[in-house]
Amino acid sequence: MAEKKTTTKKAAEPKEAAAKKTTTKKAAPAKAVLAVNAENAGFKAGDVYQALAAAEKALSVKEIAKAAKITEEETLLGLGWLFKEGKLQNTDDKVTLA
């Protein structure tokens, strides 16, 4: 015949011991690495171009990044590509299509 296991409740821990167990360290989130190559730069340039075309006005780097849903670093990568091709112009710290 199988024996029945009995469980016992542990005595309540003192408040000080419980407080010590609740402290935890939070690790910083891992930062994404931006792959810099011709294909990625071209895709980011396309994202930037589409965001500027949809806005139909001059935007700052932050505004472009938000509109294109990409990081500021990716935005700068795309802007560099488009500036080199002569598709953009810079006016008062904002960028617009040429």
What would your notes on this structure say?
It is a single chain. By secondary structure, the protein is mainly α. The chain contains four helices and two strands. A hairpin with a 2-residue loop joins strand 1 (88-91) and strand 2 (94-97). Helix 3 packs across helix 4 (72-84). The chain starts with 14 loop residues before the first helix and ends with a strand.
Quick rundown:
By secondary structure, the chain is mainly α.
- Which class of secondary structure composition applies to the elements? mainly alpha
Molecular shape: elongated
Q: What is the string of SSEs from the N terminus onward?
A: HHHHEE
Fraction of residues in H or I helices: 40-55%
Strand content: 5-15%
Strand order of the largest sheet: 1-2
Q: Measured on Cα atoms, how large is the radius of gyration?
A: 27 Å
Main beta-sheet annotation: 2 strands, antiparallel
* Number of helical elements: 4
Span from first to last CA? 87 Å
Q: How much is the average pLDDT?
A: 82
What is the total tally of β strands? 2
* Uncertain residue ranges: none
